[in-house]
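Justification of computing resources. Each target in the renewal requires a structure prediction run like the one illustrated here; the chain below, 299 residues long, is used simply to show the kind of job we budget for.
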Amino acid sequence: ANYVKGVISYFKGEAKEGFNAAIVSSVPVGGGLSSSAALEVATYVFLEALTEEYNKDLKDKALRCQKAEHDYADMPCGIMDQFISIMGEKGRALLLDCRSMEVTMVPLQSDSDVILITNSNVKHELSSSEYPVRRKQCEQAAEILGVKSLRDVNNEKLESNKSSLPVTVYKRARHVVSEIARTTQAAQALKINDFATFGKLMVESHNSLKDDYEVSCPELNQLVSIAIACDGVYGSRMTGGGFGGCTVTLLKQSAVDLVIKNIKNKYDGTPTFYIASASQGARDITPLLEEELINKLFE
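Resulting structure tokens:
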């Protein structure tokens, strides 16, 4: 309820009267699929439709939803989840510069390739408590290196100052510095439909999250290992805060059934699967429902 309360508090307009609302979702809670941001943004869009006061500044809308999570759910989250929930476009990925808040839409569409989300259906009770710890460790690394943000550090600078960093702090910084580079490379790969390179970067990202950032878990590692051993898979990695939740796998459409079968046979847990594609962000679907109802009346 705190997520909803926070969004109501920071809504740009004003809900002058009370209201009844039902919240229904197919997004797994705590699965690393941005369920918190989904709830925040859906609430904001609902309030816009209710009050007919629309915030055309999408960045401001995202920041208000983020602030709701910071202040009401006491979670110092980043901004990525809110941005994509609001600004998503069909057939496109979103490249976000978290410093300038600049958004670049990158093509992510192929008739022969899909995204397979695999839910490990495990959740180790560390994700919420460890996120602030990782954030503080990265801030500590930046302070020691004399920069405002690890965004200002390249691999050469990090390695030349390795001895001045505590081992754990160094590993956290190495993940962030390498992940920034991978993200840029991944966007370039998508622009030319180079899914093979993109998939390779996904695996490198997972290994970095596992070894340097230490937010993975045996179940996620097993799911990734099973997936990348299958023909037709470009790459796979954990997603979200870690310690359970989901993996994301980029693969050929023709390989989906085989990959699902292998995971069911080899994974020690009980997985669930979702086929996903890049789609439009949150919006009021009332006009679509009204059009569908009218069409049915005249059938």
